[in-house]
Amino acid sequence: MRLDKLISETGTASRRDAARLIKSGLVLVDGMPARSGSDKVDPQTQQIIVSGTRIEYKTHRYLMMNKPAGVVSSTDDHRDKTAIELLGPPYDSLGLFPAGRLDKDAEGLLLLTDDGAWAHRVISPSKHVWKTYDVRVDGLLDHADVDAFAAGMTLKSGVSFKPAGLEILSSGAQSLARVKLREGKYHQIKRMFAARGKTVVYLRRVAVGALRLDDDLPPGGYRELTQQEADAVFVGSAEHLTT
User: Fold this and answer.
1) Model confidence, pTM
2) 45 exposed, middle or buried (CB, 10 Å; 0-12, 13-18, 19+)?
3) Which of 45, 98, 182, 219 has the largest count of CB atoms under 10 Å?
4) pLDDT of res. 241
């Protein structure tokens, strides 16, 4: 790989800035000053240091973000702030995008990546990846609601939802519950509760597969996943159960 391309793809500097850094002697390859951005390097076997910091090249990146309410799960939006706009260097220049969506007014675990195949596995209904949400609703939840979620629903509009898990955490004028889905249709949780005469007033995604949202991440915070964590997303999925 060209040295300037490597520096650019790690988000360390643009190709233009990489050329300037190389010319200034601030880029070392195996301890020796680089000569040109066109030099070929192997990031797996060679040590590349830019301005005193060793850069690490990864084929793909996987991040978890604690998305705040009011932010849209998109790479670009003319009206609202996007999750991508919350990223700082080097992640803001790596071409990351959301692996799935989370409602604008919802909070919690949002996955970001530059790996299209991985994102497809997360999103695809055929993979049946579990998503877990904490929900607060106006209205008293009871066992009839649990049974209705477990049976699946067909709305008057004809839209159908597959069976989902509903665990009542507390019940009262405002009830708390945990919902588990293996699909992610438009406003699905809100529409399922609406069909039961309840209104969702708070929604937070807490897990995707076996990957749980890091409790230490503040709203808007994010961190990179380990490979083990990226794989944990598919634990319990149809794909995982057949392998």
Assistant:
1) 0.81
2) exposed
3) 98
4) 45
